[in-house]
Specification:
By secondary structure, the chain is mainly β. The chain folds into two domains: 273 residues, no CATH class; 68 residues, Sandwich (Immunoglobulin-like), CATH 2.60.40.10. It is built from two helices and 23 strands. Strand 22 and strand 23 form a beta hairpin.
Length: 374
Amino acid sequence: MKKYSIAAIVFLVSSLLFYPAKAEHIAGQDFTYVLVDSSAGLYHYQVTLTTYADCLNGSPEAIAQDNPAYVAVYNGTTQVAFDSVNYSSADTISSPGGPCIGGLTVAFCSLKRTFVPDFYLPLSATGYVIVYQRCCWNNLLNIADPQDVGTTATCSIPPSGTTTHNNAAVFTNYPAFVIPIDSSLAFDCSATDADGDSLSYALCTPYTGANGFNSKPYPGPPPFSPLTFFTPMSSSDPIMCSAPLAINPVSGLLTGTPNHLGTYLITVCCNEWRAGVLINTVQREFEYIVSDCTLGISTPSASSVTMYPNPASTELTISAPDGISSVTISNLLGQTIYSNQYNTRDVQVNIAYLPSGLYFVKINDAVVRKFVKE
């Protein structure tokens, strides 16, 4: 029998005790602000942070820990203000709306919370950056290690040399959340601006913030690191589509034809222009769940399904206590490379013959997982 040293046993036990609990739950967020008034050289900004949490498959502990939210203001790399603010309103969205709904049952739950901190700031020649950071995303298919990386949400107050008064743009609509596979998407991502600034739109880069070991940090200063996407997906091409996802830079209309089930992160930026100068960018991150709506099948991952190891080199094990009826593996081009029917709770699939890369596994025609073949 193999023997272990006391030191090894202590290390193993301590690792189990102190390894952080899963914190996946984030489903999106955005920032905006209004200039309320100014007095004695201080400008009163009321910030609105809206967060969305996956209350169907997300960690209840992580969702509870979202309150209060930590929001910081930076002048360059110097923190000039901070607030720990409780949410002022909360709403549970149990129906995703949009084209997937029509008498169908689609499992869905999103907890929307609104946090409204106030900041009193003097004019600044370099402007300010407002920052919120939190971990972790849930089971996204287009970014690396989503359950161990978080987000950085930001918006900016322009320098005093550009303007002394600004209200950030506000997005008009919220996403339908669930969209049908192989159907043309047309969603209005436009915003309004109280100052009458010119607005333009783009699919832009989301930033990472926090991680599984420090899931709720005090927000750090810029510069921020971009999230890593799985190739060939990217911030400008975030969903596998037969007609590529694109946003009209003038109207903000988001179009495309998704052709692969799963949950995907999308980031839309609304740029504010005044007299031809970019003065602020409002960034919104949200998840689109691509679903087989015609069958009433929801694609949020079932928490009971496990798949390991990941990455894998020779064999992939899939387990589901409720039973496995089918397993399909496809590559990034959407080509099916393995498909089989089962009537069991545990499946072992030989993947030794597959080239190295990213693959998608669909279990019971509903639950989608991804794995990396080494």
